[in-house]
Amino acid sequence: MEVLATLAAVLAVAVLAAVIVSVFVKGISAINLDFFIHSEVPFGQTGGGIANAIVGTLLLVALASAMAIPVGILVGIHTSEFAQARTATVVRFALDMLNGVPTIVTGVFVFGLLVAGHQQSGWAGAFALAIVMLPIVARSAQEVLALVPEALKEGALALGAPRWRTVLRVVLPTAAGGLITGALLAVARVAGETAPLLFTSSIISSTGASANPGQALTSIPVRIFELSEGYSATERAQAWAAALLLIFFVLALNVLARALYGRARTRAGTAR
Amino acid sequence: MLRLTGAHRKLADRLGDPVLRALAWSASAIAIVVLGALAYKVFALAGESFSRYGLGFIGGENWNPSQGTSGYGFGAADFLFGTAVTSFFALLIAAPLSVAIALFLTELAPRGTRRPVATLVELLAAIPSVVLGLWGIVVLSPVIGNTIEPALGSVLGWIPLFSGAPAPFGLFTAIVILTIMTVPIVSSITREVFSTVPTELREGALALGATRWEMVRMVMLPYARSGMVGAVILGLGRALGEAIAVTMVIGHTAGIHASLFATGDTLASRIASEYQGAATSLQISSLAYLAAILLVLALIVNAAARLIVRRTTVRLPAGLGGSS
Predict the structure, then answer these.
(1) Contact check, Cβ <8 Å, A188/B126
(2) Residue B7: predicted pLDDT
(3) Does B301 fall in a domain?
(4) What predicted TM-score, i.e. pTM, was given to this entire model?
(5) Is the ipTM of this complex over 0.90?
(6) Is A157 on the interface with B (CB under 8 A)?
(7) For chain B, what is the domain count?
(8) How many CA atoms lie within 13 Å of A244's alpha carbon, on the beta-carbon side?
(9) Do A83 and B248 touch (CB under 8 A)?
(10) What's the CATH code of the domain at A163?
(11) Residue B104 sits in a domain of what CATH number?
(12) Each residue's pLDDT tens digit, A139-171
């Protein structure tokens, strides 16, 4: 039994290593300056890069974050400061359900809401990503705000500070580490999302790269998905290179979030 | 720091609380409205198909989108089959693996290695599914088609599940990919559940002379049972809804086969591959019907998992699970 359990853990780590090593080995050869500074070329031509996908991903994730992070943190404030227990339970349940919605269904929803009858756009894609982010940010905000000691809040209130000042000056700064961790994990999660963008921001106009969210923006995950269906060696190589870039970005964000969380936890622990 | 004095300060303080309360309240309302609107819209999009086929769509085995041909029509049965088979077998493999990993991390691993190994396993969940799909196409599928399936076929070929010609893409490859995606989720929740087993119980069993394995079998597993079930069901929710990685390796054919080596399609992967190019409004609506079925399944599974896990007082990590 001990041998089997050890083997299982070794297997899981080995799979992670296998994926990362293949992405690295196959992707590194296609990474060069052109890959970063050129956009994709029309069908049939060779060369090109993923500059427009990098710009698109940055823009989509930034817009989605601007929508989801403030709302998510406000949900956390609502739960910890204002809501009654029953309301808080309902909100928590709704967030958990939203978190369980398959992202492809989110894509269908946003397609029906914003794209059908109009056209694909960066706004639609960002909105779909924001729906994926919201429950992650809000649930983690609820959890970390609940950890802020009552004594701190009561101290501020007893000194005559109104509640909104208490929230802005005492509650949010105390929980900042945890809030940032939740936001970073949500960003890491949606940076790699393909399914919500497939019907909302994937058909790129033939005139080439655009950084205008009024039009469809391409993104690194969608580009990998398209390139993976290609048969030429260069397409495959570019798919791997884009995967390497994406995996590096996503794993770095995850490691950063974990490190911050660890530090925030230690600090909260010593403060108490 | 902004200093407000006298009359201004009073005004700001008087307005501040109701404004913050209103903003916070609206944010919570937004979360609930988005969920409601999402469900409403997906069902509305499915309206045309629903009024044509009714609930019979769910059991309908025909999916033929070429308009004008005699068989033109839609039904969900083949994709429900694909979703059920891939998710079931993925969890059948992932559940024991995950419990073993959780046991290793709580009982066996040397203290210093527990945290790094746990982090590595959780990072596996952070790999975007499009990257896992690419890896599945290029690295995994040849191994499965040339080595694993022929080996399984030669030993277990008398079982219908493992009969038929080996192929790089199909249900089996999708199952392996889904296993890789669910193990990190199930194992990290199971680990949390194990860590709630009271130390007195474990030490009591050991003090009574139980071996470590007896302690695990007679104390930890029974104590953690409902939490483990919840973890597996949550993993099932993840597997049901995975579209991208599955669509890249499953081979895209409608049909119901006994063999796992055959190609197939799931609800999610069919939506992902066909929605964009759908030609008729009935086809789009039928794909939305598939999405509605998938939504209902996912919500039921998630609600069940949360109910079960809540009873074990384990907090579920909100950000867990990779991109899909």
Answers:
(1) yes
(2) 58
(3) yes
(4) 0.89
(5) no
(6) no
(7) 1
(8) 21
(9) no
(10) 1.10.3720.10
(11) 1.10.3720.10
(12) 999 989 988 888 888 888 888 888 888 888 888
